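Subject: Agmatine deiminase family protein

B.,
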Amino acid sequence: MRISRRRTLHAAVAAALGGGLSACRTPDGSEPAPGGGSTAPSDAPPAGGWRLPDEAHPHRSTYMAWPTRKIWGPDIAGVRDDIARIARTIAEFEPVVLLANGPDVKVARQACGSGVEVVPTPVDDLWMRDSGPLFVLGPDGIAGVDLNFNGWGNKQDHGRDSQVARRILDDAHLTRVKAPITGEGGALEVDGRGTLLATESSLVNDARNPGRSRDDIERALKNLVGATTVIWVKGVKGKDITDYHIDALARFSEPGVVVISAPDEDAPRDVWTEAYDQAREVLDRAVDARGKRLDVVELPEPVHIGRRGDGFLACYVNYYVVNGAVVMPRFGDKKADSNAASIVRELYPGRDVVQLPVDTLGEGGGGIHCSTQQLPKVG
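Prediction pasted inline below.
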């Protein structure tokens, strides 16, 4: 997951940085473009009292977005097939709302079928996990945290996507909480019981939060999502468009249990295997908000996946938990695919495990989780 297939729009940016960019990570060896979001006052009072539930909490629906030709260019047919397949699958378990630019609505409806609600809304790209709001629960029901999406530190055009969170919340008549920091949903992983897991590389980052210390960002995050404990892992900065989001590395399957994407033991040593080693060391000694040590479960990455681009996202932890199921990728490594499904099935008893091919999405450096955002039920 190190080279983006979305070159058309940001080719000039990629050239300036000395390499291609990926939705999740890309080798370029350069520092991210400068930038950062506004710290203007919230539309709502500070988010104290709000809580970001874990992904297994029951959902009212899932939000997604339809990919655009200006981003994906010659890969548009393949990535639209992937997104439509994901949307149709999720719709078997819960309602799906898919945002699409006006001219694309008809083709999106044809591809996704009548089980998916397609809503005309301006979008740049498909990465709803990052551009959409974080839906939090509180005494007044549901609100949405707007993380001031800025194209992963101004690495990609985001004029429309920067407004997606606001538009969703306005359309749903939900309170908008404007975060005092800049980030993306894929940068945050919670257990729903007060513990937040994050990579420093994607948040303590001058492309998003210039001049802000880790302590500053941690205080803001705790207030926004209702966390009392933040577990930081180092991550990898400047090697991909997201600066290594946590949802491509480690996830909570339940309070006290973290699933980590584990490289093959024969994988060459590089910044990604080093990031895994560092994260594993941190998680092995970490305690959660309840003061308990974590149980760390490895989810081995596939090996035999044929000829893929250097940016291909070959990790299973970028799965998505829906009502009654877990939707996860299938890479064509039959042994690894089967083993990953068995592990996830044990981690989520009572849920169906549905594996989907998402080859073009993976070549863009992202996965199923990156393309979705859940709206939780109250209670």
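The chain has twelve helices and 16 strands.

T.
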